[in-house]
Every structure is written in C-alpha cells, then in structure tokens.
Amino acid sequence: MAVRIIAEKCKGCQKCLKNCPFDAITMQGKIADIGPACTNCGNCIENCPFDAIEKIDDGNKGVDITLYHDVWVFAEQRDNKLMGVAIELLGEGRRLADEIGCRLCAVLCGDKVDELVAELYEYGADVVYYASAPELKTYNTDAYTKVIYEAIVKYKPEIVLLGATHIGRDLGPCLAVHCGTGLTADCTKLEIDPEDKKLMQTRPAFGGNLMATILCPRHRPQMSTVRPGVMTKPERVSGRRGELVNLDVKFADGDIRMQVLEVVKGLTEQVSLTDAKIIVSGGNGLGKPEGFELIKKLADKLGGVVGASRAAVDNGWIDHSHQVGQTGTTVKPELYIACGISGAIQHLAGMQTSKTIVAINKDENAPIFEVADYGIVGDLYKVIPTLLEVLGE
Asked: Which of 14, 120, 200, 391 would bridge with 191, disulfide CB 3.0–4.6 Å?
C-alpha cells in the first residue's frame, strides 16, 4: 500500500505536514507532497479535514522469493588487489551459504584481473561471476551498477553482501534501488532464521545505544553492507577451484555519465587500522595534541599503529583516518591499548571484539574498564613512559 494526495481536494492547510511523525510531507506550491520517507502510517489521513489523502494499492506485493538462490559477495578490488573486507565477507558468506544450503558466489569487476579469480576460489567461492572491461578498471557508479544489476536480474541471488567501504556505500544503495529491494547498512552481525531461512541483519541504532535486527521478507535479494574488521577472514586453501561465469559487458552511449580522469592519492600518512595486529589509541584524556607523540612512541615500540577516539579527532589533534569506533573504523587487533579513552558506547562498538584490551585511565569508574582484559588506573603520562622503559629493557 502507498499514501497519495488527491490534488483536487487538497487546500494547502498543512495539517498533514505538521502531524507527520517522519517529516515525509512537504509543500509543492499549495499542494502537499508525499516524500520517500513515508512509512504509510496513515497519520496524515486521519488529520486531513478535507479527505484529500488516501491509501492506494501500489502493486508492491514483493517477488516470488522461491526463484532466488545463492549468497553473493561483492569482491571489491583496488589496483588489482582484493580488499580485506571482501575476504572477510567470503568467510561470513560461506557460513551463511552452508546454513541455507546454497552456493557461495563472488562478483568480480575490473580490467584484466584474472589472477584474482583463483584467489577468490581459494578463499571459499564456489562460483565467480567475472566482468572484465576497460570501463571497469577504476570504480565507476554507473558502470558497476549496470553490470552487477544485470547479473542479479539474470541469476537471481538470494543474498548480496558488500563491504561498508566508500565504494560499497555508494554501490549498495544504487543496486538496491534498481532491484526494488532493501539495504541494511553497517551490519555487525548476520544470521539465518532457522524457520524460514531469511537473513537477520543486525546493526547499531540510535547512536549505538541499541542493536536493531532487520528483515527483508518480501523482496530479493536481501542486501547488506558490513563494516571492515567485523568478520573473521577464512583460511586460504591453496589450489581450491570453482566455477567461472563470464558476465556479458556492453555499454551504450549514455550508460556511463561520469569519467574518472585521474586518481590522486592522499599525501597524508596512510593508516591501516583494519589490518593492524596492535593498536594504541589516544582519547580526550590526553588533554593536548602533543599527547599523540607519546602514543606513537608506544605504538612504534610494539610494532603497532596509532588509533584515536572521536573526541580526539573532533578536537583536531589527529586525522580522521586514525579514528576507531562507530563513526570511524571497526577494528579487531590482537592487542588494543586505550589511553585516556573513557569508553563511550560508540567507541566500544568499534573495538570491543579485540582479542586483548588494555585500558589506561585516571578514572577508575570509566566504562572502558568494563570491556578491558587489563586495566591500569593512573596518569597515562606516567604510565606510558614506565611501559616504554620496561619494553626497552
């Protein structure tokens, strides 16, 4: 069902606008207009004094879900190298496919990246759908959307997983709109409902204060983006092989509206938090930007990298590329040392699955100690130099 404005009856009184709990109604001239945020709650219908709003059957009854099979993973690659999150999703996709009883498939787009096909097999893919063309060498929204959407229409996957990277966050919504299905962003947990095999997609909601599990019961494919560092990478099985399906790639004039003229890589220091085994993070408790010099000394001594809380980034003490948390990078290192970080739930959401967590904080009641394996109550400017001295010995 959908909600529709009867233009001939609308008087422009704006009562529907004022009573819409989702801000889904705007005024186009003197006529109300229902926007995409509408949930069909019917509140506007009840409050319209002129009977100018009605519910109609828009024919949106879903699809025949029995026609859809297999789990697909978007095998994101850059510079002919698979992204870590694609490998993580192959591990998670393998688990989901085994529970459903279907195949795990990877979708690979690029220009002459044949060597990655064998790598995808070795990480667990049963089938690789491969699109190779010069237009796919560098990510392009129109080109990638067209190729993958046409493959979805033809082969009908049940589940499509993408990494919540800059590319995945752009491509996922485009595919969902074309397919007329939903997309759950930034998932931290994926499960299969044992009763009907639906995908249960869990993500943080309301600033991370609760976890929401979302279902897509009537439309396919079920689509999710998953943050890097959340899932575990599978073991690589050398020599494993699978089925190759070459996708037909044809672009007509007007299919690609944007051209990438040049790729300029940032000049700032590149931080690989996702792959780091040891992370030393600083927070608001540092009190000053110079505190990160001490954090870096400890990180360098341990062979790790520097992380930060959102507060430290917002203070302008360090670049956003170092940020760990819900609005930064999700990490899962062997060792995570939190220095002067109180432990807001948004930060915990990005690092609480670390194998070993050490917290250094003057406040013995700081929430960070609730998830820490080891806690040191004290001034980090005294504790860290002592640690460096001991490590030097």
From this structure: 200
Q: Is the separation of the CB atoms in 318 and 306 below 8 Å? A: yes
pTM, two decimal places? 0.71
- What three-state secondary structure class fits 113? coil
- Indicate the angle between helix axes 291-302 and 380-392, nearest 10 degrees: 30
Q: What is the distance of C-alpha 286 from the center of its chain?
A: 30
Sign of CA dihedral 319, 321, 322, 328: positive
Contact assessment for residue 214 and residue 203, using Cβ atoms and an 8 Å cutoff? yes
Structure tokens at 313: 């980034």
Tokens at residue 230, please? 């959340």
**CA trace torsion 236, 239, 240, 243 (10° rounding):** 130
Beta-bridge partners for 77: 82
Q: What is the pLDDT along the chain (393 residues), one digit of tens a residue?
A: 578 899 999 999 999 999 998 788 888 888 998 876 677 888 999 999 999 999 876 555 567 888 899 999 999 999 889 999 999 999 999 999 999 999 999 999 999 999 999 999 999 999 999 999 999 999 999 999 999 999 999 999 999 999 998 899 999 999 999 888 999 998 988 999 988 889 999 987 776 667 889 999 888 999 999 988 888 899 999 999 999 999 989 898 888 998 888 888 765 555 678 878 999 999 999 999 999 999 999 999 999 999 999 999 999 999 988 999 877 888 889 999 999 999 988 898 888 889 999 999 999 999 999 999 999 999 999 999 999 999 885
Q: How far apart are CA 7 and CA 4, in angstroms?
A: 9
Element (H, E) at 163: strand 159-163
* CA–CA gap between residue 88 and residue 71 (Å, rounded): 14
Q: Where are the alpha helices (DSSP H) in the chain?
A: 15-19, 43-47, 84-100, 115-122, 141-155, 166-179, 291-302, 310-314, 345-351, 380-392
How far, CA to CA in Å, does 261 sit from each of 15, 142, 257, 264?
A: 50, 15, 13, 10
- Give the burial string for 235-244 (b: 16+ CB within 10 Å, else e): eeeeeeebee
The token pair that represents 270 in the structure block: 């590149």
**How far apart, in whole angstroms, are the C-alpha atoms of residue 236 and residue 321?**
29
Instruction: Answer for the pair 156, 68: CB distance below 8 angstroms, yes or no.
Output: yes
CA dihedral over 307, 161, 112, 135, signed as positive or negative: negative
